[in-house]
Amino acid sequence: MTRASDLRTGMCVRIGKEAYKILLAEMKVGTAKLPSSVHLHLENLHTRTQTDQRLHPEDKVEDIAVETVTLEYSYADADALWCLHPETFEQVAVPRRMAGSYEKFLDSGSKLRVEFIGAEPVNVLIPRTADAVVASTGAPLHGDVDSAPKTATLENGLEVHVPQFIKTGDRVRIEVATGKYVERLH
Fold first, then answer.
1. How far apart are the first and last CA of the chain?
2. Structural domains in the chain?
3. Are strands 50-55 and 60-63 parallel, antiparallel or unpaired?
4. Which of 12, 20, 28, 31 is deepest in the core (most CB within 10 A)?
5. Of 176, 6, 9, whose CA–CA distance to 106 is shortest?
C-alpha cells in the first residue's frame, strides 16, 4: 500500500476494484479552510477511459507491479494480435484495440512492447513514429509547386502526404498518432 502523497505520474494503482495508470499526480497544499489533497488524472487500464480522483494525502492505495515485455509480433485475427514471448516462447494474445493505429505498421517479426499485470496484457507502448516503405507515388512536380505535398501510398496501404522529392521505394518515418510524414530515411 502506498500513501496518496507518494504517488507519481506513470505509476499504476488499484482504486476500488479497478486498475489505473496515473497520467498526472498533483499535490495541492491546504489552506486555513481547505485541507491538503492529491489530485490524480487516471486512465483505466481495461476500458481506456480517463477520470479524475481526489484523495487525502494520508489515504492508502494499492500499488500495482507492471512488467514491460518486448514481444515478437506474429499475426492478427479478428480479436487479437498474436505475439511470441521471448523467454517462454508461448503465444500471447494482445487485444487489437490496445495497438490502435500502430497495428498498420506491424509486420511479422516486429517488436511490440507490452505492459502486463501478472499474465494479463493491459497496454501496448506505442512509439511516437514508425518507419515504412513508399509503395507508390506520383512523379515530382517542378516549378512554383515544389513545396506542395503529394500523395504516397505506403506498403501497409496507408496514404500520406509527402514532399515532392520522395519517390517509390524510399523509406519514410511516419508519426503514428496522426499518420503524418516526418522525414525520409537513408
1. 50
2. 2-63 (2.30.30.30), 67-125 (2.40.50.140), 129-185 (2.40.50.140)
3. unpaired
4. 20
5. 176
